[in-house]
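Summary for the steering committee. The consortium agreed at its last meeting that each partner would contribute one worked example illustrating the joint modelling workflow. Our contribution is presented below. We chose a case with several input lines so that the handling of multiple components could be demonstrated. No manual editing was applied between input and output; the record is shown as generated.
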Amino acid sequence: MDWDALRLSLSLAAWTVAILLPVSVLAGRALAYRRFAGKGLVEALVMLPLVLPPTVFGFYLLVAFGRNSPIGQFWQEMFGHQLVFTFEGLVVASVIFNLPFAIQPAQRGFEAVPRDVREAAACCGMSPLAALWRVELPLAWPGVMTAMVLTFAHTLGEFGIVLMVGGAIPGETRTVAIAIYDRVQAFDMEAAGLMAAVLVGISLFTIAVTYALSARVGRRLS
Amino acid sequence: MSLDVMARAEAPIPLAAEFRVDPGELLALVGHSGSGKTTLLRSIAGLWRPEEARVRVNGDTWLDTETGVDLPPHRRRVGIVFQNFALFPHMTAAQNVMAAMARGVAAPRVEAERLLELVNLAGYAERRPAALSGGQQQRVALARALARQPQALLLDEPFSAVDRATREKLHGEIVALRAHLNMPVVLVTHDVNEAQFLADRMVVIEKGRVLSAGSTAEVMSDPAALRAMGLRELAAMLPATVAEHSADGLTRLDTATGPLYLPRIEASPGARLRVRIMAHEVILSRARPEGLSAQNILAGRVARIVAGEGPAVLVHIAVGEDEILARITRRALADLGLAPGDTVHAILKIMSVARDHVAGAV
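What follows is the complete predicted structure of the assembly.
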């Protein structure tokens, strides 16, 4: 069992969720309530990682983050090391790749809050921020939570992008999914099987917790 | 603390309306669905901005497209009851009410209990909206609107989502609550009966335009308004006092011109009521008729006769200080030879007065 890889995977998933939580709330809310020019285009772009093969997406990210790219050079100047083949690079790639999982369910969650309830919040004297906190979030919460669980679970299992952008550097970018692949390549089926089982366990646990929580929210509202 | 509203717009619906509501006064915006009445209400609350508009409350400008003033809804002190109540489903009744209170309120919990009691909901403070009936939700919505200590109270078809019996009850409660309200109140409704019962003044809106405006009695006898609302809505409000309940299931009311029998009314003797008498239900007779099944015969004097374009005329009959309206044909008018000043008897079937056409006095 490669505990380093598991720690890395969990850490990557946690960072991705932490960064995407505010993005999920703000972008999901904006897409649900606002009308603006090019909204359809934005929605399509957000969904793009869902339909692109991970290797294709990973390839473009690799090019975009590479030593010769503006982003890569900027990172090198700011932090003194490059972005690709590092944990930070993985986090950035993971955040981008998880945008559809983080935004779409949150958007559905916010869309489920009736317009007159949101208007009532404003007419009760709540500022937009207060209304978000006291009315919209409590009601859109199941959607936001689904978004975060999907993001977490999906990051744990992501393979193609991690391999393309991160390589498989032990302790830096070799996540569980890649470690499993490595073990299989080395005919170490026992280790691969154990790690696969641990991943299944974590995923089941996350989903069970989500269902339990959303059932509680559902009971509260009906 | 009056409310002045002016709104003009081309889209999404053409709008050209202007009205004023005085403190403590209840103005009904009456019109069919799609007439623009709700849009007018929403522009007062700041939920919609017409191309050209002015909303002033008590001298404060909330909206003036000319000078660019446009306060967002949360900065307009307005209480609004939405058609479907729009309660916060994750909060209890008391929390819903407290959600609308300003920060400075000293004891919000106590104040919430007081407001819930005011709308006859004491004991329901801990219920969530899902555990309340439609009528109870409506009361919470009203308490929440009042909790904002609004400078204007806006009611958007607040009785349309509850059943008929509850609506009648709520009408009575609104009438009673009026004594506690000192802000301008705007009621949007398509129900002329409701408007006539609850409102001091009416503005009839058709296709975004003010068709008729004035006191309820004025509007209810304005042919233009009635064409829009439907001639069968034409009715007068007759004040009456409950005299006694008789054993045969009727209630005797005393009016300025004699007794009026109606199907049993749930009110104790001495209670002052208003009865809505539909103009097309009234039969006129010069002599006091005998041998007639209709039991209500009210004597009065023809005040004026208004002819419209159609085959009917509207006869205003003065009974004491009040008026009854009778809608009869030109032919009948000619046969009777009625003229202003003549004595006439208005005949009304007991059963022609529906239960929801009786309400408490303002």
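Chain B has a mean pLDDT of 90. Chain B touches chain A through 27 residues (CB under 8 Å).
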